[in-house]
Amino acid sequence: MPQAEDAVTNNEAAVLERARAGDAGAREELIRESRHFILAAAYRQVKRTVGPSDDEFSVALLAFNEAIDKYDSARGASFRTFAAEVIRRRLIDHYRGAGRPVPEVPWSALPEGTDFPGTDEDDGRNYRYEIEAFVQRLSDFGITLEDLIRVTPKHRDTREIAFSIAARIAADPDLRRQFLEKKAIPLKTLLSQIIFSPKTVQRHRKYIVAACIVLTGDFPRIREYLARPEKGMVPDES
Fold first, then answer.
1. N or C: which end of the chain has fewer CB within 10 A?
2. What are the extents of the domains in the chain?
3. Chain-centre distance of CA 123, in angstroms?
4. How many C-beta atoms lie closer than 10 Å to residue 51's C-beta?
5. In which element (H, E) is residue 200 found?
6. How far apart are CA 27 and CA 15, in angstroms?
7. Cα separation of 147 and 163, whole Å?
8. pTM above threshold 0.85
9. HSE on the CB side for 124, CA within 13 Å?
């Protein structure tokens, strides 16, 4: 599983490099693939759910585009840590320009002029960003993190069964398409392919949906954690 995480990171680095070199298609791809990260970064600053139609999302999107141009890997921090900081600053500017109170950031932010050093804290922030993007994506399916914690199966065998159902959906192009388009488990098509009791799927629906989100999205750390059946769903941020 760590190899999968490296592959995601290397792919993003390659796309970022092409975008910075002037490849408009690569820039669009990077922005598109980072949509949930951008929403989560905005959510962290304004402390409420941000949608694509909100002004805050437009500001965050422009800030992310700015971060692509200004990122300097020689400073040691990951691109996402740098981009999140640019988004934070631009949202603060946006609120101040509109004469609105600036929402407080719930964790210590880097000061103006910082060189964004790469540290263990940097990696910890990346974990938090990923979890926040995951929470944002869960909300698209009408699920909260509290729901997920409550419905996570207590027994390892049950988690393995639920995970296998999610993995089947994620791996099958038609099931995956139906899941992403309808934001629901494609139960009829699924049950025509594999033998499972509909009650099993319905009983663990939210957990299966959450696992599908992880397997079909850019959540390498949570995916690695989920693959260990002795664990639940969301890794410890500490």
1. C
2. 34-132, 145-226
3. 15
4. 13
5. helix 198-203
6. 7
7. 17
8. no
9. 8
Contact 92, 100 (CB under 8 A): no
Is the separation of the CB atoms in 157 and 193 below 8 Å? Answer: no
Cα torsion 184, 189, 193, 195 to 10°: value is 60
The secondary structure of residue 55, as a DSSP letter, is H
Find out whether 203 and 159 touch, Cβ atoms under 8 Å: no
Contact 168, 161 (CB under 8 A): no
Q: Which residues contact 216 (CB under 8 A, 6 or more apart)?
A: 170, 176, 179, 180
Query: Is pLDDT above 70 for 106?
Result: no
**Token pair 């979890």 in the structure block, residue:** 131
Which of 48, 41, 32 has the alpha carbon at shortest distance from 63? 41
Instruction: Please answer whether residues 5 and 224 qualify as being in contact, where contact means their C-beta atoms are separated by less than 8 angstroms.
Output: yes
Report pLDDT digits (tens) over 107-124.
333 333 333 333 444 455
